[in-house]
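Hi R.,

As promised, here are both runs. First protein below:
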Amino acid sequence: MTTSTYATLLPLATASTSGPVAQADRLQNLDMLRGVALLGILLMNIPGFALAERAFDGFRHDPHSANFWTYAVITIFFEGKMRALFSMLFGAGVVLFTLRKEQAGRPVAGLFYRRMGWLVLFGLLQAHLLLWMGDILYFYGIGGMLAFLFRKLPARYLALGVPLVAIIGFVSDTLFFQHIRATRFAYKAAQEVQHQRQPLSAAQQQAIANWQDMEKEFLPNQAEIAAHTRQMKSGYHEVAQRVRHESWLGESKYLVFTIPDVLALMLLGIALFKWGFFTGQWSQSQYLRTAAWGYGLGLPLVLWSFYLSYQRGVGVAAQVAFLESHTVVWSGLIYPAQRIALVLAHASVLLFLYRAGVGQGLMRRLAAVGQMAFTNYIMHTVFCTLIFFGYGLNYYAELQYYQLYFVVLAIWVVQLVVSPLWLKYFLFGPLEWLWRSLTYWQVQPMRRTNTEAGPVPGLVAA
């Protein structure tokens, strides 16, 4: 699809093509979807702020527990789907950012890469200063730089990235799984030599050390969990020592496992934008058919996957037994299929309801949350670290899993109330304003004036 073709998906620009998107030009349905995704991401993130390692082992096999059923609902309907939707919308945002500048023949690459470079820096600050080890901004900045290179490909090629990355991901996960198995069996062989009271070779000593390192990283014992919990319930310095180590592993050692998935979802988002899915150009019947197809395929797959996980058991012993008895985890193929099917179904239902005018007040508030997604995402970290970590209210490892979602609900209410109220008086969220000002190397207008064109996002109908 050419620039002139998909330009018809958007209203004509009323602001300079070299500056930020004007308020009248915003696609409110995209903001609404972004708001849903942003709030939904907190459902998955809050256990990382609040629960000790392996806390799920205590209830994942107990159907009589409120924790179990909360976990089941979150896993089946939301786990992975909200992040996927947010990534897809980020991809659509790549097109939105570049489109009008390219139409005017203005250079956009330098501007865009500066924008992504700042996002990488914001991600590093969130991880290492605000102390959230689950940051996504760092990866989105890198993924966005890569997605920019593919943005003009036909939609059908962009969409192929998802199955291609799913296959590559399955192969790489399988190779990593087999590497762990080999490390485990080398450890057991060395242990057998020890039990026979024979001297260990240097290779056998290294095999024991390698497995012990893996255990510390992936299968911490109760003593290690207790030590980490005490650390998270301590002061800022102690918490930072742990969080920065974990964050750095994700940003370096395991970066290669994260970026392909982020990139594939962004490219799918660009494809869906070009096809008119995200811009509301599909008919209501098309959205309903997509939802029916997505739920019809996705729900059976995710339920099957959940059952297989339930059968596998919990605890270190169960995981080690599974590791030793399986060479390939074929159920890993279920996840990418059910996730894409369900995220498309969720998005289709939301777009159908939005176009039908259902719940307009809530939709406008969600759009306001989405327009301030950067600020609201960082505020999730601020709220949760101050509630759960030792230098705040110190609720780390104090609440039941299901109780965490009362905290989520409270944060949702705050952001659904504050976001539209803020946008009544200001053009951008505070961090959105800072990001734009840094991107354009020019202080952007902040306060809304009576002459400001376009609707007030989140307060009036799109």
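And here is the second one, sequence first, then its structure tokens:
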Amino acid sequence: MTGSQRLTKKMIDEARPVPGKPTFLWDKELRGFGCKIEGAGTKSFVLQYRNSEKRKRRLVLGRYGVMTLEQARSEARIKLGDVAAGMDPADEKRTARDAATVGQVCDWYLCEAEAGRILGRKRTPIKASTLTMDRSRIESHVRPLIGQRKVVALRLPDIEAMQHDIAAGKTARPRGEGRGGATQGGKGVAARSVSMLHSIFAHAKRAGLIETNPAVGVRKFPDQKKTRRLSRDELRELGQTMRDVADIEHPVGLAIIRLLALTGLRLNEAQSLERSWVFDDGYIAFGDTKSGPQIRLIGSPALQLLRDQPSIGDEPFIFPSDGGQTHFVAASGVLGRINQKIGWADVTPHTLRHTFGSIAGELGYSELTIAATLGHAAGSVTGRYVHIDEAVRSAVERVSKEIALLLNSAPLNESQPSQL
């Protein structure tokens, strides 16, 4: 730039990185204010100045895209005023970074993520469901174990020790009345908590809140995915138990559990269903799921169940809450009480999703078709595998009818042979 040209958004947007080295765009009106373009393409607002000791300093104000040009310009003016008063903003920022605790960084992350200012792996704001899980892990595991520790003092052994403590149940606590029992920690929970903390530190480092990510290089326990699924006999027992408790359990919760079994939907997908998403052709159009927007085929037993749900005025949800302000959220608790009645300790809503896929496998469908019936990203019905639509539709219908038959059947007596 030449003359007294003012730095503009267009200039920053059009600036191209030079591989292997940073470049700068300087504002000619506000001396020392500019934008740094990293070789990888990251753009950040910076302020360059000399402190009272005449030492040249450079301060990162914020990342372009998170901070606007005018916000950065305003912040630069404030910092230059501090410099004129004899202060050194770079030292102050370094002191703040050095003083930040793990708990404070987690609080920053939750606040920024809730406001949509932190982007996930797909360059989109972090989903509310993900944020709910992150908050739970922070409050249940991270904060009690290392929340008061300063990030700058953390080392890999500290984070790996946290992982071992979580796995050993050091942060275990009683659950509510839902699924019963107490949280037991475990290697899966521990590994996911460490992965989350690594991600939080990476976001904080990118924003200039901390200088290094102390979780880089941590060795996590291998992910132990749950493989529990219901056998055919157990599906019969589940159906009978739901009939037995029909007079004392919440009918909406029971309907959602049945829908999970008939479709393989995720719990939050089923509970939050809106009437406008369901079409008579036998599919649900989701605006957003764990894998993004999707169309999911459902079988006729599931479609009939949805049609049978009473409509209350202009209520958009198929499964409204008792207060009518939002959707029902207690299906997991209903399933937990059914578990207790049957004597199961390891059946969750996700078990029903595994069960749908398992029955599809027993019926001879391929992994690709099963993935599509469950809405996995690689098997999106409306994505790259349009040519298998009819195969998926046939599979969904057959599996849904098979599960409906099992749920509606009485459990086998010991004298009756099990039919596979």
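A quick note on the second one: Residues 291 and 377 are 5 Å apart (CA to CA). Let me know what you think.

Best,
J.
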